Amino acid sequence: MSEAMPEPGKTPRRDKITVEGVDKTFPTKKGEVHVLDGVNLTVREGEFLAIVGPSGCGKSTLLNCMAGFERASGGSIQVDGEEVTRPDPKRVFVFQETGIFPWYSVWDNVGFGLGQMPFEAKDEHVMKYIRLVGLEGFERSFPSELSGGMKQRVEFARALAVEPDVLFLDEPFGALDAFTRIEMRREIVRIWEKTGKTCILVTHDVSEALELADRVAIMTRRPATVHSVLDVDMPRPRDSDDPPFREMKDLIFQVLGVERRV
Amino acid sequence: MSHSQAPATWWRKFALGSLGFVVTIALWQVATWGNDITEVPGPWLTLQGLRELATDGVLWRNIAASVFRVAWGFCLAAGIGIPLGVWMGWNRDVVLFFNPTIQMMRPISPIAWIPFAVVIFGGANFMLAGRILFDASDSSAIFLIFLASFFPIVTATTSAVRSIELKYLRSAANFGVTGLGLFRRVILPAALPQILTGLRLALGIAWVVIVAAEMLGVTSGLGFQVNDSRNNLRMDYVAAAMVVIGLVGLALDMAMSNLEASALARRGMSRR
Ligand SMILES: Nc1ncnc2c1ncn2[C@@H]1O[C@H](COP(=O)(O)OP(=O)(O)O)[C@@H](O)[C@H]1O
Ligand SMILES: [Mg+2]
């Protein structure tokens, strides 16, 4: 990335995405399911925002609306002052169980969003992003030959290759084993610091949110609203055993109404 | 019940397969002991008949005729069935429009269509396009093969497209891939494994139907061979034709399964 980017956590940033009074209901056989109930949220340019909430509260639904995969039933979602009506390559979604295509090689997956381009230029571009996620040497491999963490890296590379402003991450580490998850969290922070993208991470894992994010938005149970947004003013890399970390974690669990100790 | 886990070694497969084959032949021999060619023939008479048919050359002509008709009927069914299935899988209104009719026609055996096939395609009032590509007498058999393979192909393709995971379609939409590119780069490859399975199933059914399809209006083909030999009371030729139908069917299935495996392997999706 060549463009200048604000130093994470320092410069005051402009608003990138504004979510105002968003409602979402799904029609089902048993009547309407009211999922989002007047969600308000602002995402700042270049920040790493985490959204936490209990399972099934509507985190994915909110992210899908922000990405343009679903239309909100009410309210407004704007990116750079423009209403979101459909998905856009400027804002790429990373899926929970990786959404890379099993019928394409790593190279073809990473180049998927690039469109028509001379081969040399495309190869250079694709290889740049394959290197960025540390997968050089695997460009001819197929997803079925890769581990879970490597597939996730391919998906990051595929997303970054179209040079988007925003990454939507829907529990991207949910399907990984504990060790790979730690490694991939470190990886996403590295990529974020290096590229300066606006990252919105949805997770039900409070520690994950606190380890990664500049700010954490807490969603309530269904029908969900954003209860509050906490600033996480801790230097990275963060240690989940530090007292401030533990205090914030307790606070979030309190808001969520969960007794943390078993 | 014991259920072995380890894959069988090749020699075990070969040994047990051959043994089963030999036992079957032996039982066949015992059951038909002393029969002549106007009764159910034994393996030896069948082999004799097979040799006569093969040296006569008529066997090869009949194999070629049957394979030709099955190829035509099957390719027409795939050519219409795959696009229709993709359309049905893609658009819910299209599936609502076609599906009740298709599911109702599906259980009707192609054999029940024979009277109509003869009426429609038997007469001289036959489509010109057909006459250029194949002989008019072939068309009723090709029609029946088409019917036999069309429904499994449409059904498999529809369900293949409908079951494409949402995240693949959303990824494509996210990167602005739509229209023909979406079809070529996402829908077809995602649906391909299930479509190939449907094609293989359809080819198996098509080949089973060939005997019935060649019962009327044709003077060649393995199905004709069965009927004609029966009329001449040459039961050894009937049995010989049956053996050949089995062998060709096996060969077709193996060819399809190889195609399936290589198509999937090229995409790095070979099972295991
Ligand atoms: N397409 C849909 N139709 C009906 N209900 C849905 C649909 N998508 C999500 N829901 C419901 O909305 C609620 C929130 O789902 P989701 O956003 O996936 O939750 P989360 O990601 O927070 O676990 C769930 O109760 C789910 O059943
Ligand atoms: Mg979710």
From TrEMBL, chain A:
Metal-binding as UniProt keyword: no
Top-level enzyme category: hydrolase
UniProt keyword terms in alphabetical order: ATP-binding, Hydrolase, Nucleotide-binding, Transport
EC number(s) recorded for this UniProt protein: 3.6.3.-
Entry-linked SUPFAM superfamilies: P-loop containing nucleoside triphosphate hydrolases (SSF52540)
InterPro entries: AAA+_ATPase (IPR003593), ABC_transporter-like_ATP-bd (IPR003439), ABC_transporter-like_CS (IPR017871), ABC_transporter_ATP-bind (IPR050166), P-loop_NTPase (IPR027417)
SMART domains: AAA
Record-annotated ABC transporter domain positions: 17-246
Entry's Gene Ontology molecular function annotations: ATP binding; ATP hydrolysis activity
PANTHER family in alphabetical order: ALIPHATIC SULFONATES IMPORT ATP-BINDING PROTEIN SSUB, TAURINE IMPORT ATP-BINDING PROTEIN-RELATED
Protein name: Bicarbonate transport ATP-binding protein CmpD
Organism annotation: Saltatorellus ferox
Organismal lineage: Bacteria, Pseudomonadati, Planctomycetota, Planctomycetia, Planctomycetia incertae sedis
Gene name for this UniProt entry: cmpD
From TrEMBL, chain B:
Entry's localization field: Cell membrane
GO annotations of cellular component type: plasma membrane
Membrane topology reported for the UniProt record: Multi-pass membrane protein
GO biological process: alkanesulfonate transmembrane transport
Residue stretches spanning the membrane: 12-31, 70-90, 111-134, 140-161, 173-192, 204-224, 236-256
CDD domains for this protein: TM_PBP2
InterPro entries associated with the record: MetI-like, MetI-like_sf
Domain ABC transmembrane type-1 per the UniProt entry, residue ranges: 63-256
Keyword Cell cycle among UniProt keywords: no
Keyword terms: Cell membrane, Membrane, Transmembrane, Transmembrane helix, Transport
Family: Belongs to the binding-protein-dependent transport system permease family.
UniProt-recorded name of the protein: Bicarbonate transport system permease protein CmpB
Taxonomic placement: Bacteria, Pseudomonadati, Planctomycetota, Planctomycetia, Planctomycetia incertae sedis
Gene it is expressed from: cmpB
